[in-house]
Input
Amino acid sequence: MSIDRIVSQRRRAVLRAAGGLAVGAVIAPSLLMAPAQGATPRVVEYRLRAGPGKAALVGPPHSDTAVWSYNAQVPGPTLRARQGDRLRVVVENALAEDTTVHWHGVRLPNAMDGVPYLTQPPIAAIGGGFVYEFDLPDAGTYWYHPHVRSSEQIGRGLSGTLIVDEHAPIRVDRDVTWVLDDWRLERSAQIRSDFGNMMDATHAGRLGNTVTINGVVPDSDNVRAGERIRLRLVNVANARIFALDFAGHEPRVVAIDGQPVEPHAPEGGRVVVAPAMRVDLVIDMAGRPGERHAVYDRYYPRQHYRVLDLAYTNEPPLRESPLDAPIRLPANPVPEPDVANAKRHRVLLGGGMMGRMMGGMTGGRMMSMRDMMGRGMAWTLNGVAENGHTPAPMFTLARGRSYVIELVNDTAWDHPMHLHGYAFRVVTRNGAPTRRRPWQDTVLLSPEDRVEIAFVADNPGDWMFHCHILEHMAAGMMGIVRVA
Output
């Protein structure tokens, strides 16, 4: 697949102008309290301003792209704190429409989850504000984004990364973040305004024609022979699933969705990162000075393309042998579910084009698929299509009890399913136990997949559960799980 023919010759110029891809933009936090042993958590404060702006996604000779952004940056600033800190974020809305901020993957109080009308009033347009404040129980890689008209607000650039450092991080030479995104651009490098069309909603979602890393169309990322890098992959795209092939290298997965996992080589040699997911890798740079090694995206059949090159500088190797240091991350304090005695629920994913679903419940009454689509609906959870943030709960879970939820994809399309407020173990896939039982907050289901997730319902409140292909969510694939 050609990422974007109109900019293919401009990649090196864009990279030079952006100053490289090594890390996302970071803003300095305000430390309101010094750390204290066994006392009140240290408070780390940031300020975010959501508003319109410009970004050099493509670079000369094209003009900057009109975007919506946090603090006039695409992606938004990287917020950084340490496990156990309290994060305080003062948000100002300079957009001409309401917004919120959702802290994706963070186990936080329901009132801080950023879902309009369900957990908070929306932040009013042109001058509205909200203060988010919550403790950070888990180390890991997370991200933040709006939950108002998410498809368009995220699709125009509103997202950023939240990194929560371990008290004792693994030893690496560099900690690098790649924010993966795609954009649907006109030849003028402006964002196409066809958000919410039914072709996207009923198929694979809004797939763009221009892929960026950290807000620029990349050509290469400079690395040094012999160094060890922790590479944090964050997929903020509306719908694109990435499957990265690091040719000539042996990446090891050390965390998924911020949660540590037994270090392992990616299955099939490709690092799959669905929308909203994060994958932390450790990569030893085993090439030689002056070499270039391509990184390919190989997810979609017959649409493989080069994302960028790992470009080795001409410096002498940092070391001749790989760094001899453990790479297993310490576990986070997520409560372990009692799977054997767990209560069970089932969620059937239905709808979309080329599927078997003939209709569903919409607005409290049964409709044909044709009538649903006339109202912008195309997907269901357990036969119900929802288009608001305050539907009746799909089911109510007893606080403190273990649950297993079976997810069944009865559609012809992929669905990365996200549960707010929780990390869950992925315990089975298509009837077989998963090899590592990873903790995740977003799990990808391919067509006809059956996946079981397990967790302890210890965080009370009404929590969104939805497909993170944002066009699918907007067209009905969302619901509420109540914990009481």
Observations:
- The radius of gyration is 22 Å.
- The first helix runs from residue 11 to 18.
